[in-house]
Design goal:
alpha+beta, Ribosomal Protein S5, domain 2, Alpha-Beta Plaits, 2 domains, four-stranded antiparallel β-sheet, 30% helix, Impact N-terminal domain-containing protein, Impact_N_sf, Impact, Impact_N
Length: 203
């Protein structure tokens, strides 16, 4: 059975600083829902740490179908992005980005040292995050005459739906949401309500 919930963090974590032989590793974790959110965050971190030689990161999106990316940003192959991604997996999170800007301290750490440092910075950043369970939502567009408003609202309350958008005129339109696992039940309930058109909104 497909999952309809996932673990992520409630909001962006506090900045952490991990030092290793005078190199500074700053760890950040951000909840994200789309890939296009990544680039502006990384650009912002480059501005925040103009002396950082590398801003390495990893992200993962999705629940039943997962996509992820890792980026070493000029560090030796798999010495930064993959250790960061390993921590995302270890925490069991998805829809998350973890980034670690590094300011070089003058002493080379070697590949082993880098792996350990990026892993630790990512772990500390994720430790700062507040875990939260989120649900995958199914949305429906309801169209009906104003006269049916009471019946529709009663059913919305009964099914514990969220009202995400509304247009209330002589003919009304509501955008309502529920946990994905309840979508069949919601469709069936509104099908029985004469005069209401219930259409699932594409994911």
């Amino acid at each position: 059975m497909e999952k309809d919930s996932y673990r992520t963090i409630a909001q962006a974590s506090q900045e952490i600083l991990y030092k290793n032989r005078k190199s500074k590793f700053y760890g950040y974790a951000y909840p994200i829902t789309k890939e296009h959110q990544v680039k502006p965050i990384i650009e912002d971190l480059r501005k925040r740490h103009p002396t950082a030689g590398h801003v390495c990161f990893a992200w993962q999106l999705g629940v039943n179908t997962v996509t992820y990316r890792t980026n070493d940003d000029g560090e030796p192959n798999n010495s930064a992005g993959m250790p960061i991604y390993g921590q995302i997996k270890a925490f069991g999170y998805t829809n998350i980005l973890v980034a670690v800007p590094r300011i070089y301290g003058g002493t080379k750490l070697g590949v082993g040292g880098l792996i350990q440092a990026y892993k630790t910075a990512a772990q500390l950043a994720l430790d700062q995050g507040v875990p939260i369970e989120r649900y995958i939502k199914a949305q429906f567009k309801l169209s009906f005459d104003y006269a049916l408003m009471d019946k529709v609202m009663r059913l919305i309350k009964q099914l514990n739906l969220t009202i995400d958008q509304q247009k209330l005129e002589l003919s009304c339109e509501l955008l309502v949401g529920t946990r994905k696992r309840n979508e069949e039940k919601v469709m069936a309930a509104f099908r029985e309500l004469h005069g209401v058109n219930c259409k699932k909104v594409a994911d």
